[in-house]
Amino acid sequence: MKKTVIGAAGAVGGFIMTLFGGWTTAMTTLVIFMGIDWISGMICAGVFKASDKTENGGLSSKVGFRGLSKKCMILLFVLVGTRLDLIFGTPFVRDAVCIAFILNELISIIENAGLMGVPVPKVMARALDILQDDKKIGGNENKNNA
Description:
By secondary structure, the chain is mostly helical.
């Protein structure tokens, strides 16, 4: 039984890696940043009760599930980037997608640290404010005002 489970897990893992065109440093970095963001979000909500995603600032299974769903969607974007690389014969679309999402995860990690009371350098705080303003301008917040 143990060999069957290990063999099946290996086959599934191999199939997934084939879809993603192998494993790269960019993908490793993205997964690490996604994990750090998830853990820091859990600490922010569970320990510090400072989450900006819930009314009471605490943990919420619904919010947690939404967050994990978004992270799965990020991985699907990486898959799309991989497939576009294959179609266009280029080696960089997947890495560009990874880098964009790595930066997004970094922003979220810094926000979580700030909510926990970790001192964030003023330069980083200003950069976050600018990026957040850009998100509001180009994001969902202004779609209702159009």
